[in-house]
Amino acid sequence: MTGEGPTVSETLAEARRRFIEAGIADPVTDARLLVAGLLKFSSTEMLSRGDERLAEEKVALIKVAVKRRLAHEPVHRILGEREFYGLPLSLSEGTLEPRPDTEILVDTILPFLRGLAKTEGHLHILDVGTGTGAICLALLSECPEASAIGSDVSADALSTAKSNAERNGLGERFEVVQSSWFQNISGTFHAIVSNPPYIASNVIANLAPEVTKFDPAAALDGGPDGLDAYKAIAKDAARFMRPDGVIGLEIGYDQRNDVTAVFEAAGFQCVGSAKDYGQNDRVLVFALNA
After folding, report:
1. For the whole model, what pTM was predicted?
2. Architecture in CATH of 82-288
3. Where are the domains of the chain?
4. How confident is the model over 188-219, as pLDDT tens digits?
């Protein structure tokens, strides 16, 4: 590791300076995450090993990564992985980068699953549009009595999700199905979860380049009103639910009333909700009307 190049601290300071000059939104955090991730250093090691000099190949690696970040590629895309609910997850071109707000969906659904586990024993979960597998794998890691299917239209996403399941020791309880919504799904589920595309088509071009350039469009575009995915899920979900099952959904900050109306019209009632860290509506939970 050690060489004749700049120290770890000097390298970090240079990355931070370049990010600040370029107007990167959170330059301090991004510089620390990027350099630490590339060096495989913990936060503590970034401090305790700050005076170590870096070998030439490490300096070159970091320079390339800094250049990629200056071109708006997100830090975790550069590193190739991101932690979600304590699980390290690999990213790929066909997957949305999981965000901390999505962990709130896991938090919100877990009490329902734990309640069902007391009476049902084995639980079966469906994650519609699974991407990296983040939501589903987090639920499996917290519910040893559960198994799950992750569905997605993207073969790349399904390969990534399956790899993430195996990486985290969850492969035996997780299978993938290539499907548009419920097209190729069979069986019934105690929980159906999804972080579907919910951004209105005409808004996408105005999003940050970190999103528009690097997140797959299919995982963002929710149609003219942002509700296409919710309408598709609500239309058929009842056929795939256990009588006491629930549907947990991430929603856009201004979609609570519209999404609730879509599901109520399809015979569901809202039985839970949660706000994100910015106090915006972020999660809705539905059950079939009795």
Report:
1. 0.93
2. 3-Layer(aba) Sandwich (3.40)
3. 2-79, 82-288
4. 999 999 999 999 999 999 999 999 999 999 89
